[in-house]
């Protein structure tokens, strides 16, 4: 059986991965695609956004810390998919893995080389990294994951370029080129990318990866492959370089970044919600890395899909609520030291 091509889709929180993926899934290209998702947080929202009008095979692994646990989960999931394809139980031609925005793509890519069963079934085609033009400079300054996502990219898609001035975009492009000279860059608008720019790029060159991370293929990779949970390690790094101080890694699991979920069975008042969220992002916007939800608003028969990053937020109408479907609002907030009690109390005050 021919090897199944696999694409890893990465990028920091809010960079537009789900938007790009939805675009790819809904384009009339005739390809059957299996999607593996990993979302940071206890509630998977993307499934509601993604599969509203597609019939893809979506497998979710909502297990929190992607970098420590996805390797085994991902290996088992990929092996299971390949076995079901061989038995004729599933029909798909390629796999897309959407990582959480906090993921180091290194261990995800490792899975395709460290495990014989996976290596015999799949070909890692490329790692696609989305970069948010509006917030990238700050993220690259402060987050080692964002640096490594750029460093591992075979193709960089720059989103939200319409929100920055031309000199700022040029400066970002220069910085990205300095960090990863081998990855072509392309600006994208709302995930509108031709399928030929996403699949069959044959971009993943293992030798190039070893330049970034010499320990990439060591069996003891978990201790050495640059999982820098300890963000303030006190070492100086070149751009895109992670900290390699061997077994001294302390697993803080992104303790500065937390997520929580708000759920409500009653409908929300659109006016109250707009006022509250507007006030909240003014105060806490810089610390709000990512927030999104599927909302039940009073006065509409359709789901409202709501997404934001820092002070930027937007919403649009999703599909109609299905007959008998529970009309529940679900919102996920991912951020640094967010006042959970204040947010939840405020959202409860927005109920109609």
From TrEMBL:
UniProt keyword Lyase, yes or no: no
Entry keywords, A to Z: Chaperone, Hydrolase, Nucleotide-binding
Superkingdom of this protein's organism: Bacteria
Molecular function GO terms recorded: hydrolase activity; nucleotide binding
Gene Ontology CC: one annotated term: cytoplasm
SMART domains, per database record: CobW_C
Pfam annotation, one family: CobW_C
Domain CobW C-terminal span(s) in chain numbering: 257-351
Catalytic activity reported: GTP + H2O = GDP + phosphate + H(+)
Family recorded in the similarity comment: Belongs to the SIMIBI class G3E GTPase family. ZNG1 subfamily.
Function: Zinc chaperone that directly transfers zinc cofactor to target proteins, thereby activating them. Zinc is transferred from the CXCC motif in the GTPase domain to the zinc binding site in target proteins in a process requiring GTP hydrolysis.
Record's protein name: GTP-binding protein
Organism per entry: Ideonella livida
């Amino acid at each position: 059986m021919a090897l199944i091509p696999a694409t890893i889709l990465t990028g920091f929180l809010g960079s537009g991965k789900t938007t790009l993926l939805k675009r790819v899934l809904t384009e009339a290209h005739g390809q059957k695609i299996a999607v593996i998702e990993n979302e940071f947080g206890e509630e998977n929202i993307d499934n509601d956004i993604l599969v509203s009008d597609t019939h893809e095979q979506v497998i979710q692994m909502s297990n929190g810390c992607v970098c420590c646990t996805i390797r085994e989960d991902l290996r088992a999931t990929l092996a299971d998919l390949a076995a079901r394809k061989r038995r004729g139980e599933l029909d798909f031609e390629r796999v897309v893995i959407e990582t959480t925005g906090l993921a180091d793509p290194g261990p995800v890519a490792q899975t395709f080389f460290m495990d014989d069963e996976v290596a015999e079934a799949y070909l890692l085609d490329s790692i696609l990294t989305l970069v948010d033009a509006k917030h990238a400079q700050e993220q690259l300054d402060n987050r080692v994951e964002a640096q490594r996502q750029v460093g591992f990219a075979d193709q960089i898609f720059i989103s939200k370029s319409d929100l920055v001035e031309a000199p700022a975009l040029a400066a970002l492009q220069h910085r990205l080129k300095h960090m990863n000279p081998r990855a072509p860059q392309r600006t994208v608008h709302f995930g509108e990318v031709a399928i030929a720019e996403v699949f069959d790029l044959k971009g993943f060159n293992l030798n190039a990866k070893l330049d970034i991370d010499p320990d990439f293929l060591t069996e003891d990779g978990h201790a050495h492959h640059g999982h820098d949970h300890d963000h303030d390690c006190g070492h100086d790094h070149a751009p895109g370089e992670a900290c390699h101080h061997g077994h001294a890694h302390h697993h803080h699991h992104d303790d500065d970044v937390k997520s929580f979920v708000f759920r409500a069975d009653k409908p929300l008042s659109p006016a109250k919600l707009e006022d509250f969220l507007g006030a909240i992002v003014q105060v806490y916007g810089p610390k709000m890395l990512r927030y999104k939800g599927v909302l039940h608003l009073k006065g509409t028969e359709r789901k409202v899909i709501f997404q934001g990053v820092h002070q930027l937020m937007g919403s649009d109408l999703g599909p109609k609520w299905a007959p008998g479907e529970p009309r529940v609002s679900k919102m996920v907030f991912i951020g640094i030291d967010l006042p959970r009690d204040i947010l939840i109390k405020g959202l409860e005050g927005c109920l109609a």
